[in-house]
């Protein structure tokens, strides 16, 4: 869904589909697990999990809703996650059999529709909008689960693993969103795809001065540890785990690269439209103010002199009541994202320019028109001058991507930087104003889940989707050399010509379009 907060080209339907290149791995690993049965029961530390064939890729085994932590309810609300262990069978055939989507604090689609912001959407955009704004899932505090797509009977017996962290401003989103189904990536690219849930908004980043501040980050870490400990049983290689995410999910992955620099578990990071510091970070006083505002809204504020009684009262408030009573907080009212990561000096820091990230490869980038969605779908920002969106593109997305890439290069770590230019009819929001490659517009192509209700995928759209799936998988299989082997991508150098521009360029002489071109490294950084 994403999402914090899609170049129609002429005659694309006539273009041939160019298949993705096969990612190259430099590892010599045994091939396939001959006796694997699709959906077979797999033993895990959570218990034996039974899956089923994926809906469209039936040779892929799909395991949904696997609990990795105990439900954070009752006395475990606003506590550090506790690992889930058990021996009882787990039904992994539906996202919500063993858990739910985490509680969502997000403007409702109905409210935005009533304000008329949908009147100018294309038919394709009208279907993309609900996918972004309303996760189609029941919500509950009992939500700490993960999902796995794998195909051990084909390809490598020990496959690279991609762990997906969804975005949503740390306030909304779910691993069960239809955009994030991992079957195409697993089936096409010979990788294991894992997606995770983590606590959001006040449940994940409460601001309570008497408890942990960054529970959502701790949830993610526990899920990553679960993957490390269990993924071999699903055909995954625990030594080749790459974290990737978009928007807040990318920022969270980057936070891990600093918080766990000495024990990262991950062998690389793919950061799509988000970095550790790009959205700003909450201070503890600002987070505490939000906590007491919420407590006041549900009748629990006992004042800063009695924080324990306020906390005790908040524990008794039903989750549904609490989430619907959260006072609206305009972006920009506090540093960072409301109910987002808080500087605590343990997991989240206020001095990233002085800190060293994990010595790991990084692929970082953003879309060319990040703000295209926000200015169309968020009524509280309506009427802002056009220059505002240009400034947001530069200072929230472009500059932090360049800075993070430069940091990684300076530390001697393999680094690639990209910029996404793709925009296609079924992921374009309005016809006018043109939104181009908006924040998250690459996701339906990456997961091969673009809505085709009114507009089928164009030939170039299929081409680019297969291409970026191949590139991301190549990075996961070999974060150091995989992209060089895949398509001779250039390692990023701030003073060179190494920026990978995806879905950019004019038709070639044979009538096909290039998947990428290489441009000046700092072509979009003039104002940084």
Properties at a glance:
single chain, 528 residues, alpha/beta, Rossmann fold, eleven-stranded mixed beta sheet, two-stranded parallel ribbon, 14 helices, 13 strands, disordered N terminus
Concise summary:
The protein is α/β, with parallel strands linked by helices and 528 residues long. 27% of the residues lie in helices and 13% in strands. Strands 2-3-5-7-6-8-9-10-11-12-13 form an eleven-stranded mixed beta sheet, sandwiched between helices. Strands 1-4 form a two-stranded parallel ribbon.
Report on the architecture of this protein.
The chain has 14 helices and 13 strands. By secondary structure, it is α/β, with parallel strands linked by helices. It has an 11-stranded mixed beta sheet, sandwiched between helices. A two-stranded parallel ribbon has the order 1-4. 56% of the residues are buried. The N terminus is likely disordered.
